[in-house]
C-alpha cells in the first residue's frame, strides 16, 4: 500500500545480490569520504561541492541547536509575542514594556525570532510577524503543545538513560495517566483532565485534516473510540447533520464529553459511553468507527485486540478510520520516527507505526481492504481507511 506520502509503505524485500550490495558499497564509500577531515576541508572550498557542504553543516548545526530554537518559540508563546505583533509592526522600545523585558533582552528575542522566521524585521527598526509566527496565530492547540513540552524535555535530559531503561516511570507517563495504568477505567477525573484539555485544544487541526480527507456524511452512525471530551465529534456534527454520534472513552473522560454534548445541545444525537477498550465491550450500532490519535499510544497486542473488537462491533459493512501521525511519512520523517518515537518511549507506551505496519495488524484482525486517504498536512495526521472482507 504505497502512496505519495508513504512511498516506502510496501517495504519490498531487498533483492539478494547486485542492486542492494552495490548500493551498500557506494554508501560506505560516501561515509568514509565524509568522515575524512581532509575531504570535508576540500569539499567546503571546491565550488561544486560547497553548497552541499554548507547545507550539511547547517543541518547538523540545526540538530545541535534544536532545543535552543524550541525555547525561543516557548518564550514567544509565553509572552504572547505573536498576538502583540499581529496588531502591527513595533519597535523593540515599544515592545519591551509590553513584554515586561529589559530592552536588551527584547532585542535578543526579536532577533532570534526573526532568524527563525517567527518574526520579521521591518522598516524603521520595527518588527512584525514572520511567516511562521503568523501560522501560530489563532492556533491555541499548537501553543498548548509548545507549553507541555517541558515534561518531555525533562524526561529526555539524559536520552541514553531513557533508551537504556526502556519503558520506565517518567513525568510524561504521569501526565498521560492511562499509559501506565493497570486499570485505566478507574482513573479519576482530576488525573485525566489536563491531558483531555490538551487534546481538545489541539483537536481542531487534526479534525480539519481528517474531515478534509474522508467524507463522513456517507455514514449513518459514528463511534469515536478514545474520543476525549467530544471535540472531534462536535466538528463531525457540523459536517454531517444527520449522523448519529457515539463516543467511547475512560469513564472520567466520557463524563466530560457527556457534559459538553449537553451544553452544545447535542444530547439528542450524541451519547458518551464510559469504559476501557482493554477490558470492556465496545458499543455496537455504528457503521463508522474512528481512532483519532489512539493506536500509536498502545503496544501491538493491545492494538490487535482492539482491532478485533472493532471488527466485531462494526459488522460486515462497517468502516474503520485511523488518523494519527505515521512513521515513514515522506517529507515528515523526523516527525514520526524521531519526535513521536522518543515521545512515546518517554510516555512509556506505544510506538509510531508505518501504514504498512498498521495494515498488517488490520489484516490479522480481518480487515481485508485497507487504503490511505490523502491529508493536506500528513505531519499532523495521516489517515487509513479499513473495511472488513476482501473487496472495497
Ligand atoms: C498570501 C501570500 C502572499 C503568500 C502565501 C504563501 C503561502 C501559500 C503560505 C502558506 C501559509 C499556510 C497555509 C501555512 C500553514 C501552516 C500550517 C498548516 C502549519 C501547521 C503546523 C503544525 C504543527 C507545527 C503541528 C505540531 C504538532 C505537534 C507538536 C503535535 C504534538 C502532538 C502530541 C504530542 C500528541 C500527543 C498524543 C499522544 C500521547 C501521542 O497520543
Ligand atoms: C491521545 S488521546 C486522543 C484523544 C482524542 N481522540 C483526540 O485525538 O483528541 C487518547 C484518548 O484515549 C483514551 N484512552 C486511553 N486508553 C483507553 C482505554 N483503555 N479505553 C478507552 N479509552 C482510552 C484516553 O482517555 C484519551 O482520551
TrEMBL record:
Q: Name one GO biological process term.
A: methylation
Q: Give the annotated active site.
A: 296
Record keyword Transferase present: yes
User: Residue ranges of the O-methyltransferase C-terminal domain?
Assistant: 191-367
Known CDD domains for this protein? AdoMet_MTases (cd02440)
Q: Which Gene3D superfamilies match?
A: Vaccinia Virus protein VP39 (3.40.50.150), Winged helix-like DNA-binding domain superfamily/Winged helix DNA-binding domain (1.10.10.10)
UniProt entry keywords in alphabetical sequence: Methyltransferase, S-adenosyl-L-methionine, Transferase
> A single GO molecular function, which one?
O-methyltransferase activity
- In this chain the O-methyltransferase dimerisation domain maps to 62-137
> Which class of enzymes does this protein belong to?
transferase
User: Which SUPFAM superfamilies does this chain map to?
Assistant: S-adenosyl-L-methionine-dependent methyltransferases (SSF53335), Winged helix' DNA-binding domain (SSF46785)
Q: Which Pfam families match?
A: Dimerisation, Methyltransf_2
Enzyme Commission code(s) on record: 2.1.1.-
Write the protein's name: Hydroxyneurosporene methyltransferase
The species this protein belongs to is: Rhodospirillum centenum (strain ATCC 51521 / SW)
